[in-house]
Specification:
alpha+beta; Jelly Rolls; Rossmann fold; 2 domains; seven-stranded antiparallel β-sheet; 8 helices; 29 strands; 23% helix; 32% strand
């Protein structure tokens, strides 16, 4: 007590005096003199997301043009990255963005690229990428100093962990379809959005006490986030015509929570990047299971005022403890669904804990679902069962005020096809009462309409799956 009394009587008045003088003068504490720190490859490389190779050349970490992003927080007044390429020194080959702003070419001299210079000391979120013309040529050294930062004082912070295409572990589950990467490059690539694979939503589930997430993607810069299965929040950035990679920073409150994060589909024709990075350690997510929907334009999210990221599947999956994804094509018939499944199913990892939703038939309802279409619907069911889904939910066609009698008749036939298989893994989802969802054309839900549909689907699927 005596020691604490002495400290309080001698130190505290001095501190108060200094603080009072600063308050009166309005002056901030002076920054230290600038210094420069060289950060090593081991410190810098965790900032990479997307396609990289550490095996093509053991002395180098290779990036890929338009498929690899580096991001992190750099504190300082200047930052320079040493990043040669197999093509030699190339002007305009690297682009940089600061705090989510527009990308611009990073000036370089002898393969040393200036990320920023001449700015006041501050902490900035920095994104670095390489233009498509650089292909598989750019790299940083796999050891030694690669990033020089001048600051007061200089600092570097990268994200702690990441979940990318193909992930399936206790720390994170990825549900999108994936395609092969170039030789020696990892991870696999997110399948493109389009007529082959459909909406091809990329989606992950993670858990932790995060204050920030960074989502790297080649999509339309729109990301949906559900915390602990709750309502979706959306984040977006300005689109760029060729959809090269960039990151969206998602704020979190630091509580230990489970997050489902999904995008709007990857638009890069040759496969793209999807990665969720976090600023603290990942925790065990517990149950790992997928909810994958296959369908037509309603599954795609093509209604006016809606996008693929608005479809109900991802928010329903989050609410039920799954990670969701969709593959839907506008105008898809049940015959076309067979082809889509043949394209998509080989690109997915499926277990008996996973659930498929078959949402086809709307584009066949006008002819009453003839015998050929019935056979096609049966084959779609067979393909999902053969893939290994533990349950297949055959969802009837949604109510349509413009053609309700046709819809009712088609649903009777589709259900009879399912019933004839007498398979306990099959469950019919009757959407007859799923009314009142908003559309702008009488058929396709808008963004608010999908929220209404999710409200119907959550209890219906809960019952069907015995959750």
């Amino acid at each position: 007590m005596l020691i604490r009394s002495i400290v309080q009587s001698t130190i505290q008045p001095v501190v108060r005096s200094v603080v009072d003088r600063l308050r009166i003068s309005g002056a901030a504490p002076a920054l230290p003199a600038p210094t420069t720190v060289n950060f090593t490859s081991a410190q810098v490389s965790p900032g990479f997301s997307g396609s990289i190779s550490t095996t093509k050349n053991a002395a180098r970490i290779y990036a890929r043009g338009a498929l690899t992003l580096w991001s992190g927080f750099i504190s300082g007044t200047e930052a320079k990255l040493t990043a040669p390429s197999d093509f030699g020194d190339n002007a305009g080959s690297m682009e940089v963005a600061i705090n989510g702003g527009a990308f611009s070419a990073a000036p370089n001299v002898a393969s040393v690229y200036t990320l920023f210079t001449g700015l006041p000391h501050a902490t900035r979120f920095v994104e670095v990428r390489w233009v498509a013309a650089m292909a598989n040529a750019p790299y940083i050294a796999s050891s030694g100093n690669v990033l020089a930062v001048t600051g007061q004082p200089p600092a570097l912070q990268t994200f702690v962990g990441k979940i990318e295409p193909g992930a399936d572990s206790a720390l994170g589950l990825y549900s999108g379809a994936i395609i092969a990467n170039a030789a020696n490059y990892t991870p696999p690539l997110a399948a493109p959005k389009g007529q082959t694979y459909g909406s091809s939503i990329n989606s992950v589930k993670i858990k932790g006490a995060f204050t920030k997430l960074a989502v790297t993607l080649n999509g339309t810069r729109r990301v949906g986030v559900s915390k602990n299965g709750g309502p979706a929040a959306y984040y977006s950035a300005t689109d760029e015509g060729s959809f090269p990679p960039r990151a969206l920073v998602i704020p979190c409150d630091g509580s230990t929570s489970t997050y489902n994060i999904w995008d709007d589909g990857n638009y890069k024709d040759t496969g793209g990047t999807f990665c969720v990075s976090a600023d603290s350690a990942f925790l065990d997510i517990g149950t790992r299971r997928r909810l994958d929907q296959y369908g037509d334009s309603i599954t795609f999210g093509s209604g006016p005022g809606a996008t693929s990221s608005d479809t109900e599947t991802m928010r329903v999956a989050a609410a039920l403890g799954f990670v969701g994804s969709t593959n839907g094509i506008s105008g898809q018939t049940v015959g076309g669904g067979k082809t889509m499944l043949d394209n998509v199913l080989p690109l997915r990892t499926v277990t008996s804990s996973d659930v498929a939703i078959l949402a086809l038939g709307g584009n066949n309802a006008s002819d009453g679902i003839d015998s050929t279409e019935q056979a096609d619907y049966g084959l779609c069911i067979d393909k999902l069962l053969a893939k290994g889904y533990g349950k297949v939910l055959c969802r009837g066609i949604l109510p349509n005020a413009l053609a309700q009698s046709l819809v009712d008749a088609a649903n009777v036939i589709l259900k009879s096809v399912m019933d004839a298989k007498a398979n306990p893994k099959l469950v019919w989802i009757d959407p007859t009462t799923w009314t009142g969802f908003t559309t702008q054309d009488g058929t396709h839900p808008d963004a608010a309409g999908y929220v209404t549909i999710a409200g119907y689907a959550i209890p219906a699927y809960t019952t069907a799956l015995g959750l």
